[in-house]
Design brief:
There is one protein chain. It contains no helices and 11 strands. It is mostly beta strands. The protein folds into 2 domains: 67 residues, Roll (SH3 type barrels); 28 residues, no CATH class. The strands form 4 sheets. A 5-stranded antiparallel β-sheet has the order 8-3-2-1-9, with no helix packed on it. Strands 4-7 form a two-stranded antiparallel ribbon. The two termini are 17 Å apart. The structure holds zinc ion (ZN). The site of zinc ion has 9 residues, from loops.
Length: 106
C-alpha cells in the first residue's frame, strides 16, 4: 500500500476524475480507499425510534470506496499527482515522490 490515511490523492477515473481529497480510511485487504468528498453516495434514512431517541430522517451523503488503481498520491512537496517509490532510510522504508524525489513521510 503506497497510500495512507491522511494523504491527499487525486482521482484518475470516474465522475470525480481530477478531484482531490484527503484519505479518511484505507482498506488494505480490498485495496480500497475512502476519500473525503469523493464518490459521494446517498443513503436514505427512515425515521427510527430507538430507546426513546429519534434519529433524524433524510438523506445522508457519505463517501464510497475507491479502488487504489483509480487514485494517485498527491505529493505534498511538489503538489503533483505522482508515482511513489520506496527508499530505505535508516531502519525505515520511506515513500519517495518519483516526480521531485522528495521524501513524503516526515
Ligand atoms: Zn513531489
Amino acid at each position: 500500500m503506497n497510500i495512507k490515511k491522511g494523504d491527499t490523492i487525486e482521482v484518475l477515473s470516474g465522475k470525480d476524475r481530477g478531484k482531490r481529497g484527503q484519505v479518511l480510511r484505507v482498506i488494505p485487504s480490498a485495496e480500497f480507499v475512502v476519500v473525503e468528498g469523493i464518490n459521494l453516495r446517498k443513503k436514505h434514512k427512515r425515521q427510527v425510534q430507538t430507546q426513546g431517541r429519534s434519529l433524524t430522517p433524510g438523506i445522508v451523503e457519505f463517501p464510497g470506496p475507491l479502488h487504489l488503481s483509480n487514485v494517485m498520491l498527491v505529493c505534498p512537496k511538489c503538489g503533483e499527482a505522482s508515482r511513489v517509490g520506496r527508499q530505505a532510510q535508516g531502519e525505515r522504508r520511506v515513500r519517495v515522490c518519483k516526480n521531485c524525489h522528495a521524501v513524503i513521510d516526515a
